[in-house]
Design goal:
alpha+beta
Length: 343
């Protein structure tokens, strides 16, 4: 996964503008507004700003990696329990690849064309693995098996959507919108299609309580590869909230834009509570709300215009998904060719 740089923004004077500074400024704009509520309003305004435009800082470039399947040795299973035990040969093979290229707890376990189980825990000493649910096929010792990866968590929890998933070796973009999970179940209910993957289908959240990607969205890649392969993943994220006092906005957005919208929300709070606060009863809150929203729109348009060129270059400086399927190609490295899809 690609580690994203910390969001930083500098004010007009070139100094770092922190979340703490933004809170203090908003708190000073409205008499008696709760300090803690200012944090809520700033993040509410931040989320609104992020949602109203495709910003460059919410575009990401990452990777998914398919590990080579493991099937050395044997496994012992017991019907009705969620633990399985691998023999010494299997333990050696699993331990050698337990973390590279992905953790064993992000992979799946299967026997033949039976049910696919997710591995939620694995003991490198005993060879005992915990599955996400009880094993319900016929149990026994000395059974063959396969450990592979069919489901891939997104690089971040605030993931919003995929732009493309690229197989650089075979020079193709996987389809990201061709099948739903229901349609895939009709086409290949046993998941018996193996080879070079063609599609990415939404699966659901990662529910493993011990996973580093707990509650991250997951996608199924079909058909499942029987070899190590790396995909380049382009996508869009929602953006993270400001949490710590030293947190800051991305460089593309000034704090003045977010604070203008946050002030409009704060003025609405003051107008709604003016009956309990005599000092606020004579203030023209409706006028101030309108002015704050006007300031926000003016600043939003300016920052959006400045950021637009960066966003456009993200799409124009690479071949997007449909084009990789539309035009033919020849790849000398992989000795593969494609005539192209007339659509």
């Amino acid at each position: 996964m690609v580690a994203l740089p910390p969001f930083q923004h500098k004010g007009m004077d070139g100094n770092f503008v922190s979340f703490q500074t933004m809170i203090s400024e908003l708190h000073g704009s409205v008499p008696k507004i709760p300090y803690a509520y200012c944090t809520t309003l700033i993040n509410r305004a931040r989320a609104d700003v992020y949602r109203q435009n495709l910003w460059s800082f919410n575009l990401f470039d990452s990777n998914w990696v398919a590990p080579t399947p493991i099937n050395a040795g044997t496994v012992t299973t017991v019907q009705g329990t969620n633990t399985i035990t691998f023999n010494a040969t299997a333990i050696t093979a699993i331990n050698a690849a337990a973390l590279i290229p992905t953790p064993i707890t992000q992979r799946q376990f299967r026997q033949g064309f039976n049910t696919t189980y997710k591995i939620w825990a694995y003991n490198t000493s005993t060879g005992i693995a915990t599955l996400d649910r009880n094993f319900l096929e016929t149990g026994g010792s000395g059974q063959s098996y396969s450990i592979f990866q069919a489901y891939y968590p997104t690089p971040m929890q605030d993931f919003l959507g995929l732009i493309s998933v690229r197989d650089n070796i075979n020079f193709v973009d996987l389809f990201t919108d061709r099948y739903s999970r229901e349609a895939l179940d009709e086409i290949d209910p046993q998941r018996s299609w193996f080879g070079t993957p063609t599609d990415v289908v939404f699966y659901g959240p990662d529910l493993n309580p011990a996973s580093a990607t707990l509650n991250f969205p997951m996608f199924e890649i079909w058909g499942n590869p029987q070899f190590n392969i790396v995909w380049q993943v382009y996508g869009i994220r929602k953006g993270l909230p400001l949490v710590n006092p030293t947190d800051a906005l991305p460089p593309a957005i000034g704090e003045d834009c977010v604070l203008a919208l946050a002030r409009a929300y704060a003025y609405q709070w003051a107008m709604a509570n003016s009956g309990d606060l005599p000092r606020n009863q004579s203030v023209g809150w409706s006028y101030l709300i309108g002015e704050a929203k006007n300031d926000y729109l003016r600043l939003f348009r300016a920052y959006r215009k400045d950021d637009r060129q960066i966003v456009d270059s993200f799409f124009t400086h690479r071949r997007v998904g449909p084009l990789a399927k539309l035009y033919g190609y020849y790849n000398a490295l992989s000795q593969t060719a494609y005539a192209g899809d007339p659509m």
